[in-house]
Amino acid sequence: MARLGPNVISIADLRVRAKRRLPRMVFDYIDGGAGDEKTMRENSRVFDDFPLRPHSAVVVPEVEIGTTVLGRRWELPFGLAPVGSSRMFWPHGEEAAARAAGEAGTLYGLSTLSGTRLEEVKSATTGPAWYQLYLAGGRDVALGAVARAKAAGYDALIVTIDTPVAGNRERDPHNGTAELLSRDPFKMLPYAWQVAARPGWILDFYRDGGLMSFPNVVLPTGPMGYGDIGQQLGASAVAWSDLGWITEAWGGPIVVKGVHTDDDARKAVDLGASAVVVSNHGGRQLDGVAATLRVLPEVLDAVGDQVEVLLDSGIRRGSDIVKALALGARAVLVGRAYAYGLAAAGHEGVRRAIDILRSEVVLTMKLLGCASIHELGPEYLGLPEWWVRSRAENRG
Ligand SMILES: Cc1cc2nc3c(=O)[nH]c(=O)nc-3n(C[C@H](O)[C@H](O)[C@H](O)COP(=O)(O)O)c2cc1C
């Protein structure tokens, strides 16, 4: 049964639908950022600094929007970023999203903090799949997951470097997230109204097994539970020195995600990364860092001719994707844009999110008078002074 009518036509519409279906603490987990959420807002706003400059009266009947990333074809210039706890948004959420990505011929990135076994998620998609690694539980636990991801056939390993501890997401304590996850009825009671207000979600959640553990983080005592995330992440932050044993154990392409500076991009490349993702985790980690589009020029100038440079954070429109590509990103990842769809309507919602972004990319390209994403360049944009200066300074 279709859940989304034809009037759901933008990512903003999917966000409204997600908000209606989810308890507040789950919606805010997706929607919120760290601290004052300045970085989160700026990630999206910064796209406004680049007005589009169409080449008019150019007829473009067909648009090429496919590309290759790490040698594998993506039918779209965007893939799905790793988003933890997706199974809280929708039953078997990771599989639903992976299936939609595969049907569209694009990437699904699976988070370590998945509620579904990595093998099942890989089987759900025919498209490219990357496994994202946190070292929660320590080296031996991570090695177990890496071996499983390799055996399951993931194409690349994402090492996320911007999460030595979880960011200060103030919506969580306001909503009593820790209390609601505690399973202690006395602690839960003051916040239980949020969940009681969403009976449809409760039904889905409990039919899917209720409060879950993380089956890809297998501690000596069994799969890591929800309450242990903070402590386990904090106890095993990724350091550059870990890249060596991770690369050796994995034996395939490594994607370093969470690059904020040219120096870190160079380090990642020196240590053997095949691609980097300029990402600030969608403004969920260190509030006050620059929007990713601001950092893109220095990273491109540092490593753009050696590895593939991707970007995420703040993308809500197809025109944002076109702008990032015109400025030199190989491809982009989207997080919340599809997570809202997943929370609103599962597989159908992710498919709708992908369809919306795809049609917006195609329309933007046609209106720009550009027939292929491979022909995009900065000449299709008005460039703010900071961008021009940054590229000039980097190039000496
Ligand atoms: C709810 C949520 C959970 C996330 N979980 C992870 C994660 O487990 N690992 C990771 O590397 N990034 C995680 N991210 C960050 C995304 O991979 C991506 O960098 C970010 O969502 C991009 O910003 P956007 O949401 O504005 O598109 C998460 C993002 C969201 C919204």
Give short descriptive properties of this protein.
two-stranded antiparallel ribbon; 19 helices; eight-stranded parallel sheet
Strands, helices and their partners?
Layout: H1 11-21, H2 24-31, H3 38-45, E1 67-69, E2 72-74, E3 78-80, H4 86-89, H5 93-103, E4 108-110, H6 118-124, E5 129-133, H7 139-152, E6 156-160, H8 171-175, H9 177-181, H10 185-188, H11 192-196, H12 199-207, E7 213-219, E8 222-225, H13 229-234, H14 242-250, E9 254-259, H15 262-270, E10 275-278, H16 292-303, E11 308-312, H17 318-326, E12 332-334, H18 336-368, H19 385-394
Parallel strand pairs: 3-12, 4-5, 5-6, 6-9, 9-10, 10-11, 11-12
Antiparallel strand pairs: 1-2, 7-8
Helix pairs in contact: 1-18, 5-6, 5-18, 15-16, 16-19, 17-18
Bound molecules: flavin mononucleotide.
Distinct small-molecule ligands in the complex: flavin mononucleotide
Strand content: 5-15%
Radius of gyration: 20 Å
Strand order of the largest sheet: 3-12-11-10-9-6-5-4
- Described by the principal axes of the CA atoms, the overall outline is globular
Helicity level:
40-55%
**Overall strand count:** 12
Main pleated sheet: 8 strands, parallel
Rounded average pLDDT: 96
